[in-house]
Please model this.
Amino acid sequence: MEPKTPDTRTSLLQAALACFADYGFEGASMRMIAEKAGRPLSLLSHYFGNKEGLYLEVFKHLLETSVQRPSHPIPVTGLDPLDRAGAIRLLREEIHLMHEQAAPNHAFERPMEDARARLWMQEFRLPRPSLHPLFRQYLGPAAETIRACLRVLRPDLTEAQVAFLGISIMGQVAGHGMMSGLNKVLWGDHPPFASPFQEAEFLVDFCLEGLMPGRRAEQ
Model:
């Protein structure tokens, strides 16, 4: 089958993604984006209002096509503080989900992945304020799941320590996808050592051993 031609709005978003990735928010102009898309400049204002609105929609498009949450969200509300097995199960499910979304094999199947990765890196250190609600909407559920599980598994930790460990877990899982190019430079271009499921389980075991040193995690 012939690939489906993107509609006007999608074409504009793809052109904006490429321009923002190459020149950053400040360097890319609305005219430049319209010319790359081969569409009238007036259409950008019609669909997105201004450059800030367009930038927001580009990231919304990235998140909608990259971060899929389960059809039945992982229930963290009301997690029993004594239910360690339940916390381990939820943490395991979240790590599997994040690894599936971040796995390089899956990432390279998406078009324009190089531009996606470069644009993400521009916002990682200091996200624009307009993007904060969007990041909380799409990435917040993963952070809240991990936070709730850590509170059960390590009730001795302060909120700052829980946040530090949660950030570490999310970072090490996401790093397999977002840092795939650098990983190849530093560690060599090697095939996956196991199936994606087994790799995620390896990460689960690594995280749980760090949370509960010297003890085998309950299954």
